């Protein structure tokens, strides 16, 4: 049986409650905050690991980001992934989604010819949801977005994704290789396997590639490859609670409460 190769794109993001934007550069300050694996990417990894359980797939985690991502990505190894490839280079900094998808696509081409590229639905920081379709465009591959379940027919070399739509489901089929994005919270990611944990955090199955390793065009990566401009940002107004206390006898409080609620009907 031919082995299925699956690349899972995973991003490390600042914890949502700690996100701060630098008013000068209008960029997220990543250095000062605690990070985590983008939660939807854990759902994407779980989908890939289930394919590994069923079809002996080789699962490669791919990420673009600074060296601090390494520790986090090793969690994916401890969950059962076979390898991590981190694309890390000063020249990748400042990438918008166009440059990010180009860089990830070049990384995928260097990894080989995966049958499936599985992403999360969106990141919790950038949250554009543009990366999976962007990778599909660069690689000229079909895509199925927002799938809750995935099935692979190795004989026919097709992938079937089940997507939730208003009031039901639809099932889309695409020839492999294909790009998939996985609906957030569509599964329960497994825990780390403590038998492989030590190896995962000390082993050599993590490779870092620079722009030279993936033979990327400098015009297409980082800031030069990013036509998006963050032209401004503003703090969303936080609505204060009214904190109204109703006092009196029980029936009186009920009457007051009904009057208050009536204002909102
Ligand atoms: C002008 C501009 C400048 C920016 N500068 C920087 C910067 O200097 N540093 C910086 O870190 N970000 C920067 N960003 C943010 C950066 O563009 C996005 O984080 C990145 O393009 C991914 O987009 P997203 O977060 O919307 O991903 P989405 O499309 O919402 O993510 C969907 C899925 O794609 C995959 N994915 C997304 N990003 C990655 C990744 N990096 N590696 C692997 N898989 C991934 C994951 O599976 C994820 O669940 C900048 C953005 C803009 C607009």
Can you lay out the helices and strands and say which pair or pack?
Layout: E1 5-9, E2 12-14, E3 21-22, E4 27-28, E5 35-37, H1 39-55, E6 58-64, H2 69-79, E7 83-87, H3 97-111, E8 116-120, H4 131-139, E9 143-153, E10 158-165, E11 168-175, E12 178-182, H5 194-202, E13 206-209, H6 250-263
Parallel strand pairs: 1-6, 1-8, 6-7, 7-13, 8-12, 9-12
Antiparallel strand pairs: 2-5, 3-4, 9-10, 10-11
Helix pairs in contact: 2-5, 3-4
The chain binds flavin-adenine dinucleotide.
Residues 9-11, 27, 38, 40-41, 44, 63-65, 93-97, 100, 104, 119-120, 122-123, 125-132, 226, 228, 230 line the site of flavin-adenine dinucleotide.
- The share of residues in extended strands comes to 25-35%
CATH topology: Rossmann fold
Number of domains: 1
Query: What's the helix count?
Result: 6
**For the CA atoms, what is the radius of gyration?**
22 Å
Q: What is the overall shape?
A: globular
Quaternary form: single chain
Q: What series of H and E elements makes up the topology?
A: EEEEEHEHEHEHEEEEHEH
User: Residue share in helices?
Assistant: 25-40%
**Reading side by side through the largest sheet, how are the strands ordered?**
11-10-9-12-8-1-6-7-13
Straight-line distance between termini = 64 Å
Bound molecules: flavin-adenine dinucleotide
Largest sheet: 9 strands, mixed
Assign the structural class, choosing from mainly alpha, mainly beta, alpha/beta, alpha+beta, or little secondary structure: alpha/beta
State the name of the first-level CATH class. Answer: Alpha Beta
Number of strand elements: 13
Q: What is the typical, i.e. mean, pLDDT?
A: 93
Low-confidence stretches: none
CATH architecture level-2 label: 3-Layer(aba) Sandwich
